[in-house]
Amino acid sequence: MLLIICVDRDDDVGRKAGIGTPVVGRDAVEDAARRFGVADPEDSDLNALFQAIRLYDETDEEAEIALVTGSRDTHRNGDRAVAAQVDEVLEDMDASSAIVVTDGAEDEGIIPIVESRLRIDGVSRTVVKQSENLENAYHVLKRLLDDPDTRGTVLIPIGIVLLIFPINVVMNLFDLPNAALGITAGLLGSYFLMKGLGMDEDIERLTDAARDGIYSGKVSLITYLVAAGLVVIGAASGLREVQEFTAQSEAVIEGAVPVGMAFVQGAVAWFTTGGMVSSVGRIVDEYIQRDDFPRTYLNGPFYVMSMGLALHAVSGFMLGRFDEVYLAVGVVISVGIGMASTAVFGGIGGGSVRDSDEVAEVE
């Protein structure tokens, strides 16, 4: 059996017309197309639906037609939704091959998903014909500006390039005539690198998590910001320590290692404080949100403190600022803090704080 499958990767059909998917069968798909056409007659997915119906009507072999959709959240979630719906469609039929119908190159990204499940005999990309006049060009540009996906992909680089002139004017006021090109190139490079590595979805998830954290009152959001500030201060302190070290070296050994130790010596206190602050915020959030808060979470700040003390002692010794006694005492205290924390709060598989409280109440 041939399966003619129409794909709407960003679920315009579901969002705009409230149509549940997958939709299987010619009559059902045609009804979905009509409802979608009433909801948004300008959407290109509508043409793909009718193209799938036309292919179904023209085929001479036994065939079935289906509509599957993804999700607008991210391509990853959309592809997972498409895969789940394709599996659901294939459960009820014995299809041996498929023709995939899309409205453009973006939806064709799901072809490997379909191809991993059955043979693909062809791909039909439906392109809407546009008359070449000013009015249609205006409407196409308007739709381009209204589409969030295309808007972010196309307009951001154009906007960055157009910023060259105003940036150049501002930089000239500060006697930095060549800075505009460098800043613009840096922004463009960062944008393309982010898109190439798929970091835009990760940044979007972080933004959503930060927004949810603000509205849900998560303490960790504040402590993470404080920790980030402390890390920045620590990095600056470490670089300043490196500058002072290179100007007047007193290291036990020469080379790149003492330079790294100088950075650690200057930054470790700030880094340790930042790690402890973020760890405390995470502990507070977990304690509020979980009924079975594990005691092992309480090890976090003490382990961070232990590592910070060890790095402080070792780096100072490598720079010739501490003697062997200081190093030994620092390492012993560091190990002692870690062992004491593990003994009090437990290691892997330790119980929960609330469980301990309940046991105490029973006793």
From TrEMBL:
Pfam families registered for this protein in UniProt: DUF373 (PF04123)
Keyword NADP: no
Record's keyword terms, sorted: Membrane, Transmembrane, Transmembrane helix
Record field: transmembrane: 152-174, 180-198, 219-239, 259-281, 302-319, 325-348
UniProt cross-references to InterPro entries, sorted A to Z: DUF373
Name of the protein in its database record: DUF373 family protein
Protein's organism: Halorutilus salinus
